Every structure is written in structure tokens, then in C-alpha cells.
Inverse folding.
């Protein structure tokens, strides 16, 4: 008999086996609810937030230039 774990969202027992497609969740619905909680920042990883000073200014400037160029290409206001 495979080990079972509780679904992190609803608590339903989920067999820990390859046929449990959404493990550790019991269903795609529970998986998507949990993902939404991460996006809404209901779940967070403990610790200090990263500092912008950790990023190399040259790399950061290149990323900003690339982002701006891509936005100009997609924006209807620049055509």
C-alpha cells in the first residue's frame, strides 16, 4: 500500500504514487488554488527580502533597456 499524504489545500488523503497526477494535491483544482495563493502572496517564504544592491548595475541597466525596447515593439502608441 503506497504512503498517503494530506492534500495541502483540503486535507484529503492522496496516495504518493505515480498515478496520483497532481500529488501532493488531490486535484488540479486544489493545485491551482494553492498557486493562486502564492501569486496573491498569501504564502511567503520566511526571510529578509532581497536587496536591489545584490544586482550588478550593468546587468540591471541591460535588463531595463531590453524591457523598454520590448514594450515599445508591443505598444500601439509607438507605431
Amino acid at each position: 500500500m503506497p504512503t498517503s499524504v494530506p492534500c495541502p489545500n483540503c486535507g484529503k488523503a492522496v496516495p504518493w504514487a505515480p498515478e496520483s497526477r497532481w500529488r501532493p494535491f488531490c486535484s488540479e483544482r486544489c493545485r491551482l488554488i494553492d498557486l493562486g495563493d502564492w501569486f496573491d502572496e498569501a504564502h511567503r517564504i520566511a526571510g529578509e527580502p532581497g536587496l536591489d544592491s545584490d544586482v550588478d548595475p550593468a546587468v540591471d541597466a541591460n535588463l531595463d533597456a531590453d524591457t523598454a525596447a520590448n514594450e515599445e515593439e508591443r505598444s500601439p502608441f509607438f507605431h
